[in-house]
User: What shape does this take?
Amino acid sequence: MSSTAKRFRAGIVGGTGYTGAELLRLLVNHPEVEIACITSRSEDGTAVADMFPSLRGHLDLKFTVPDVARLAECDVVFFATPHNVAMRMMPELMAAGVRVIDLSADFRLRDADVWAHWYGETHTAPDLLAQAVYGLPERNREQIRQAQLVACPGCYPTAIQLGFLPLLEDSLIDPNQLIANAASGVSGAGRQAKIPMLMAEASDNFSAYGASGHRHLPEIEQGLADIANDPVSLTFVPHLLPMIRGIHATLYAPLRDPTLSLKNIQALFEERYADEPFVDVMPAGSHPQTRYTKGANYCRIALHRPLDRDVIVVLSVIDNLVKGASGQAVQNMNIMLGLPERAGLEGAALLP
Ligand SMILES: NC(=O)C1=CN([C@@H]2O[C@H](COP(=O)(O)OP(=O)(O)OC[C@H]3O[C@@H](n4cnc5c(N)ncnc54)[C@H](OP(=O)(O)O)[C@@H]3O)[C@@H](O)[C@H]2O)C=CC1
Ligand SMILES: CC(=O)N[C@@H](CCC(=O)OP(=O)(O)O)C(=O)O
Assistant: This one.
């Protein structure tokens, strides 16, 4: 274990879940940030490396119960907790000047009533909603740089917004006829005992869920409307895939101008994402696989124009735990702290 002092101290609330563990995996390799505090109510006093032996030799730290005074000694605190936790703890941290990065949905929606409708509870910090910056760097990098509170996008919203973004920015598609079919690995559901996530239920099986309305719909529509500068209407159907990590989103939209060729649209995507460190526009007509992003902070995108019809199809893949959660959270942290955006996120995807 290195004893070299690092410049910034990070705290993680919710260190025993999948996104908390993924933050640990990424941050132990970060050149400028050390993990100073990691919480768990159920594992108070347990050594992190006893719980996650894959971190043996990388981290000498014990879980402690969440304690705002202790967390307030950090430069940045991540909330890798279920909804309705960050909004209760963060006001005190914000008052102490700590930068907060929330991986939950508490601060993703601007309207507290819309949040209450989809999450079934009253928002307890509605006055902080306006301060939160939506942490999609490809869209909001400058605001993230100045932010004290960043709301990280959900996993489906990341894959879907990055796929539609250049098309909506340039008004190339009809924003009222957007369709997103997306499928996620089971780690998207978190590290809890749930019957549909048992191996005998989820493996060797495939099904849609939430087809009549999923809580990511208002988040995606809010983000896409910001990009389009107009209201949008999206049909979104999520599916559960019998694998652990990864999201594959297939996006469909009618082109406003059918004379626009796939080559033109490909050029537009390549130009829009040319300076983005974590968005890869693959050659037109390719079929990105989820494993091309497994363990890495990339979104890989490919465009199709099936049989030259007036529809553009965008394929967008991410690792839900990395670009869809903890990797994007670290990317946001780097931007907020003025560090190189790729710091701690240089790793390539796993093969196979
Ligand atoms: N899984 C994914 O792919 C993605 C998840 N997200 C979001 O990230 C957040 C975390 O997700 P995930 O890691 O999957 O969740 P998990 O269920 O796997 O983990 C939740 C963590 O939060 C802690 N926790 C639970 N309740 C509280 C509480 N009241 N106070 C303090 N800590 C608490 C738990 O530890 P303990 O109970 O021991 O304290 C645990 O460490 C969620 O909001 C999720 O929606 C976002 C994008 C993708
Ligand atoms: C497979 C699976 O169950 N996925 C989760 C989405 C996980 C995620 O990113 O959502 P939040 O951060 O908004 O909770 C779901 O559909 O609820």
The chain has two domains: 8-131, 155-320. The longest helix spans residues 322-337. The CA atoms of residues 72 and 95 lie 9 Å apart. The radius of gyration is 20 Å.
